[in-house]
TrEMBL record:
The chain crosses the membrane at residues 21-42, 48-71, 78-99, 105-132, 144-166, 172-191, 228-249, 261-280, 287-309, 315-334, 346-371, 377-398. This is MFS transporter. It is a multi-pass membrane protein. Keywords: Cell membrane, Membrane, Transmembrane, Transmembrane helix. The lineage of its organism: Bacteria, Bacillati, Actinomycetota, Actinomycetes, Streptosporangiales. It holds the Pfam family MFS_1. InterPro entries: MFS, MFS_trans_sf. It is found in: Cell membrane. It comes from Microbispora hainanensis.
Length: 413
């Protein structure tokens, strides 16, 4: 059992936890509002996928530099400035839209916001280590993920209602305000002081910026489990990044549902993320890392196939929930393992290198998935994507991912 006081009594973690939960609830408004805004103006799911792809590409590019920024700058200040910048960017959209639709503006705001969001997310991962003791990291990750998912349930529901009553731009304005809440929460906490640079780190910095940029990638490549995870998850994101757009298109185009119904389905699906976050701890303890991760990817593939053949809102919601539960289990397992085996001075760059590689194929995948859904139908696309996810799970059996406790072998290796 972990030593020390409970996380419930940790003021720093509690403030961070509460503010990030509210921020995630706000983020879910943009998740609904931006695709609806594009769909209302253009009527094209391909346009939705293109915007998703461009924004994801900006995130990948930012990932090249995010790790170095996080490992070299004050992480708390960096988190605050990222939130302030995103608040300003999203705040521009409802103001500009008041004078008429401007799709081009979304191609400016979303890529910039996603790039800044990549820096924030890398810093966020390192902040957890700066908030809690090492033996509390898994508990902290699970709690942050579970409550963020719970906020994500109410968020899409409210977003659908707000978008239906007041328009998608009102939902985007709420998202902008949520970044202000997040910035305030980070302002009120204190992270543990980062250790002074070691001789190895000083030598690393002296070799130049490119050496620093590649340090995270080199660490990922030297760790057999992290290397295999990075490769397989890159293919997984290619197959799944555009699924939210496809689901919204399926509900609106194929099933003829309202904006409010879209919010209800995504809110119900969010229950899957909550369930996965709450179950990942006991599942990993009982089954081990390998079985947990591989099983989650396999079931996710089956859920995607089920989504493709769904003919009603209830089935779409259940299959989406099953998919998100499995993504949550696999994602928390993967993130916790990286935090467990990566030295603190490299954690930002390793996280950045992982996400940059992980999302590299995502933009193309989102464009292909949504284009396929529009031209060949949601059923065909989901059946093919789900079958490919099953192949990823099979491939993982032949890699070090299958180990029960890879963090132990990494610590002694």
């Amino acid at each position: 059992m972990p030593d020390g006081p409970s996380l419930w009594r940790d003021r720093n973690f509690t403030v961070f936890w509460a503010s990030q939960t509210l921020s995630v609830a706000g983020d879910s408004f943009a998740l609904i509002a931006v695709p609806l805004l594009v769909l209302h103006v253009t009527g094209s799911v391909a346009q939705m996928g293109l915007l998703t792809g461009v924004a994801s590409a900006a995130s990948v590019v930012a990932g090249i530099f995010a790790g170095v920024l996080v490992d070299r700058l004050d992480r708390r200040r960096l988190l605050i400035w990222c939130d302030v910048a995103r608040m300003a960017l999203y705040g521009v959209v409802p103001v500009a839209w008041a004078f008429g639709p401007k799709i081009w503006l979304l191609y400016v705001v979303l890529p910039l916001s996603e790039a800044i969001g990549m820096v924030f997310q890398v810093a966020y991962v390192t902040a957890v280590r700066g908030l809690v003791d090492a033996d509390r990291i898994t508990e902290a990750n699970g709690r942050l993920s579970a409550t963020a998912a719970a906020a994500g349930i109410g968020g899409p529901l409210l977003a659908g209602v707000v978008a239906g009553w007041f328009g998608p731009t009102a939902a985007i304005a709420i998202n902008a305000a949520s970044f202000g809440v997040s910035a305030l929460g980070v302002l009120l906490i204190r992270l543990r002081r980062q250790p002074a640079p070691s001789a190895e780190e000083a030598d690393e910095a002296a070799r130049g910026p490119w050496h620093e940029l590649l340090a995270g990638a080199r660490f990922l490549w030297r760790q057999p489990v992290l290397r295999a995870l990075t490769v397989l998850l890159s293919f997984f994101i290619f197959l799944t990044l555009g699924l939210t757009d496809v689901l919204i298109y399926h509900l609106k185009h194929d099933l003829g549902q309202s904006d409010g119904a879209v919010g209800v389905v995504l809110a119900a699906a969010g229950l899957g993320t909550v369930a996965g976050s709450l179950l990942v701890g006991p599942v990993r303890r009982r089954m081990g890392f390998g079985a947990s991760w591989i099983g989650a990817i396999a079931v996710a593939g089956l859920a995607i196939m089920g989504l493709g053949v769904s003919t009603g809102v209830p089935v779409a919601g259940v299959t989406a929930a099953a998919y998100l539960a499995c993504v949550s289990v696999a994602g928390i397992c993967s993130m916790s393992l990286r935090q467990q085996v990566t030295p603190d001075h490299l954690l930002g760059r390793v996280t950045s290198a992982f996400w940059m590689t992980h999302y590299a194929l995502g933009p193309a995948g989102a464009a292909v998935l949504t284009w396929g859904a529009q031209h060949h139908g949601v059923e065909v696309v989901c059946l093919l994507a789900g079958a490919a996810c099953l192949l990823i799970a099979v491939a993982a059996f032949f890699t070090p991912i299958r180990q029960q406790n890879p963090e132990l072998s990494a610590a002694t290796g």
